[in-house]
Amino acid sequence: MQDFDEFWKEYPRKCAKGDARKAWLQTEQLRPSLNDLIKALKVAKRTDQWRQDGGKYIPYPATWLRQERWEDQEVEIEDAVEVNGQIVNWWESATGIEKKGAELGLKPEQFASFPDFKAAVMRQSMRAA
């Protein structure tokens, strides 16, 4: 249950812990790894729904688990990177830009400056999309 405790610590809406624990056990075969689950939570925390009205629309943790809500931000999660414990879009950090550049076969040293590298990565990623 250590993984559940980590999940609970990260989940922003602290209510119905007993039901959340039951949902944790019920979804054991469905859930992604704890790291991916935490990453999905960090992405969800950045959404308008979760920020609106002081978090009024954040689902109960048991509901989030039972409805497999970690799947809601699938594309965004794949494009997100963690920087200093915060989840950001890849284009919002040098680390993310370098990672995306590597995926596209681009390296910073191929360009005169990092801004030139970033511009090339952005152009290339727009073509790929």
Describe this structure in words.
This protein has 129 residues and is mainly alpha-helical. It is built from eight helices and two strands; from the N terminus they run ααααααββαα. It has a two-stranded antiparallel ribbon. β1 and β2 (86-89) form a beta hairpin. α7 crosses α8 (114-128). It starts with a helix and ends with a helix. 20% of the residues are buried. The model has no long low-confidence stretch (mean pLDDT 86).
Mean pLDDT: 86
Percentage of residues assigned to helices = 55-70%
Integer-rounded radius of gyration: 18 Å
Query: What structural category arises from helix and sheet content?
Result: mainly alpha
- Terminus-to-terminus distance: 40 Å
Order of helices and strands: HHHHHHEEHH
The fraction of residues in strands falls at 5-15%
